[in-house]
Write a structure and sequence with these properties.
This protein is mostly helical. It contains five helices and two strands.
């Protein structure tokens, strides 16, 4: 006898809610922050390549070694905001940071 199981369709947000917690919980916020940090490294790599620069060339513009640019593109967790700003300045690219506190919204440009 064949049994058919019905799969319930869920959105990505519903899956996150179920497995990581609702928005605003510590686990969910940590996940979202890690994801954004990962994307930042990808953005640096993309803009660097669009400017036809090697990691070594970008490192020279920023004043760091090629290996530091490589680490930055792979993992931006332990990087200062100043370093990120220096990299994007060298790439002649504007970056904006948005900070949110309760009902206030602050923006850094």
């Amino acid at each position: 006898m064949e049994t058919k199981s019905k799969m319930k369709m869920m959105s990505l947000d519903q899956m996150k809610d179920m497995h990581l917690g609702k928005k605003g919980t510590i686990e969910r916020d940590e996940y979202e922050m890690e994801l954004k940090v990962e994307i930042l490294g990808e953005m640096i790599r993309t803009v660097r390549k669009e400017n036809h620069l090697t990691q070594e060339q970008l490192g020279q513009l920023v004043g760091v070694n090629k290996s530091q640019i490589s680490k930055l593109e792979k993992n931006t967790k332990n990087v200062t905001i100043e370093t990120i700003l220096r990299v994007f300045r060298a790439l002649k690219t504007n970056i904006k940071f948005t900070l949110e506190r309760s009902n206030d919204k602050l923006e850094l440009a």
